[in-house]
Amino acid sequence: MFDFSERVIVVTGAAGNLGRAVAAAFLDAGGTVCALDHRQGRLAELLPESNEKLHIYDGVDITDRNAMQALQERILAEVGSVDVLVNTVGGFTMGERVDQISVETWGRMLDINVQSFLNAAAAFVPAMVSAGRGKVVTVGSGASHKGSAKMGAYAAAKAAVLRLTESMAAELRPSNIQANCVLPGTIDTPQNREAMPGADFEKWVTPEQIAHAILFLSSSAADQITGAALPVFGSA
C-alpha cells in the first residue's frame, strides 16, 4: 500500500516488539531502514540482516545526546539523509503513589520516554529543516491524556512526549515537516500476555497494526496531518 523506496527511515528501539514490527513494515514497503538498539548484537538475530536496505546500528545510547549526534553523522555518511524519524523507545513502570515516586523512577521514566525523543530529534530534525521536508512519529499512550492511580510518572512522561510532539508540529510546519504521535492501547506482546494472563488478548492491538498506523503517518498520504494524536486502542 505504501511506497518508501526513496526514503531513509530511522527507527529507534528497533529491537523491541513494536520497533521490530515498524522496521519490518518499512522494509516491506521498500524503505531503507536504520535500526537502532542499545544492546550489541541483538538486532542481527531479530531482523532480516540479509536485506540490503537494512542498516543496523547497535550499542546506541539514545539517552546520550553527543552519541546521537555522532550517530547522525555516521548515518549521513553511510546511508544518506534521513527522511523519517520514528521514536519507539519507551518504558513503563507503575506501583508508586505520586507522593512516593522515587527519584530513580522519575528519572528513568523521563530518560527513556522523553529524553530519548529529545536526543533523537536534536540529532535528525535539523537536517530535515535544511532539506525542507520530513516526518517525525512518536509513540505515546492512552496515559498521555489521563493519569491513573500509581502510574503518575509514566503518565507524566507520556504526556510530555505528546505535548512536545504537538509543539514540534507547530514549529516545523513552515519547513514542510509533519510531526505526529500514535497512542497505542494494550499491545499484544508475550510480556503483556504473561503479565495479564486473564485478559482477552483478542481485544488488544498488535505491533503490526500500530506499525501500519505509523507507516500511514510517515507517508505522503499524511502530508496534511501534523500535530495529531492517533489512537490505536484495539477493541479493549
Describe this structure in words.
- The protein is an alpha/beta fold and 236 residues long.
- It has a single domain, classed as 3-Layer(aba) Sandwich (Rossmann fold).
- 42% of the residues lie in helices and 15% in strands.
- It is built from 7 helices and 7 strands.
- It has a 7-stranded parallel beta sheet with strand order 3-2-1-4-5-6-7, sandwiched between helices.
- Strand 1, helix 1 and strand 2 form a beta-alpha-beta unit.
- Helix 1 crosses helix 7 and helix 3 packs parallel to helix 4.
- The chain is globular, with a radius of gyration of 17 Å.
- The model has no long low-confidence stretch (mean pLDDT 92).
Features:
7 strands; about 240 residues; Rossmann fold; 7 helices; seven-stranded parallel β-sheet; about 15% strand; about 40% helix; alpha/beta; globular
Question: In short, what is this structure?
Answer:
The protein has 7 helices and 7 strands, in the order βαβαβαβαβαβααβ. The protein is of the alpha/beta class and 236 residues long.
CATH class descriptor name: Alpha Beta
Largest sheet: 7 strands, parallel
Task: Report the β-strand fraction as a percent range.
Answer: 15-25%
pLDDT averaged over residues: 92
Order of helices and strands: EHEHEHEHEHEHHE
The CATH superfamily is identified as NAD(P)-binding Rossmann-like Domain
Helix content: 40-55%
CATH topology: Rossmann fold
Counted beta strands: 7
Number of domains: 1
Name the overall outline. Answer: globular
List the total number of helices: 7
- The rounded distance between the terminal residues' Cα atoms is 27 Å
Strand order of the largest sheet: 3-2-1-4-5-6-7
Instruction: Please state the CA-atom Rg, rounded to the nearest Å.
Output: 17 Å
Uncertain runs are: none
Structural class by helix and strand composition:
alpha/beta
